[in-house]
Amino acid sequence: MADFGRALALAFTTRTIRQLAALHHPLPTDRLALIAELAGPDDTLGDAFDLAYAELASQYRCEYVFANSLVHTLSAPGHTSNAISGLRVSMSIADLIVADKSAAAYEIKNGLDSFTRLDMQMLCYSRCFEHVNVVTTRQKASRAAAQTAAHIGVVTLTDDDALDVVRSAGGGLSRLDMSSLFRVLRRGELLTILGRHVGYSIDVPNAQIYRRLNALFMQLPIDTAYGEFVAALRERDLRSRQAAQSAQLPASLNAATSGLRLTPPGWRRLATQLRRPAHEFRTRGARATVTDR
For residue range 80-113, what is the model confidence (pLDDT) as tens digits? Predict the structure, then answer.
């Protein structure tokens, strides 16, 4: 089952979703053919994703199952929160960030993962996020709590995909680092923040703008900077997220599409592909037929 589970999990990557949504790109036929084999004669490709996800959740609880359960629970449709998968934070890449009134980082350590890099990951996230959590199995919860600082939350995923808080994450801004916050923000976000607080508009050549923005950002009080940091993450890619919601994608793809930037036509192409009959993808020669620009 492990080899089959790993192969199924490849269908739930950002790369697969991007290729499905692309206008001129070969489809990831090997990945799609595998999940299409699970579908019935009247099922769509979206149905096939749901069936493949159910197989993963019951037989091969990989990182994606944990991530999708987190997104489903913490960033439900209609909420103001924004869930971002795979955000680079200093020397690490966070499995999931959820920004709402505050921001929290989640590092997943499932039954297949080691804790080798956990100390470095927790250090990086603690410099950027008020709340930091390890999400793991019930069997590894005690080890996660023992290996991490007291402010790190420990959460387990139950057999029925509910989240069980073993230790709550501690709050407070004393651990935050201004340079770390700065490096996560995009240029446009920084310009908006500094325009609002110090009236800044671009006054140097492009080659010098990053240094100029850094110098001004570092002068902000930490509570102001963090509040703006959270707001920027909450509003990030809002237009793309609204288009994603309009596409009404399968719940099994929540984590794969969180933080994914596509144009509105790209989301429409993805939705159209997912409505196609699954049997059209069962051969390795399946071809894209969507032309929406």
Answer: 799 999 999 999 999 999 999 999 999 999 887 8
Q: Are the C-beta atoms of 77 and 6 separated by less than 8 Å? A: no
Q: What is the pTM of this model?
A: 0.90
One domain for residues 72 and 161: yes
Residues 74, 151 within the same domain: yes
Question: Long-range pairs for 181-188 at CB < 8 Å and ≥24 separation?
Answer: 181/128, 181/217, 181/225, 181/226, 181/229, 182/213, 182/214, 182/217, 182/218, 183/90, 184/87, 184/88, 184/89, 184/128, 184/229, 184/233, 185/217, 185/229, 185/232, 186/232, 186/236, 187/213
Sheet strand arrangement including 153-157: 82-89, 92-99, 103-109, 131-136, 153-157, 163-167
Q: What is the mean pLDDT of residues 245-265?
A: 92
Domain with 106 in it: 67-173
Claim to verify: residue 99 and residue 122 sit in the same structural domain: yes
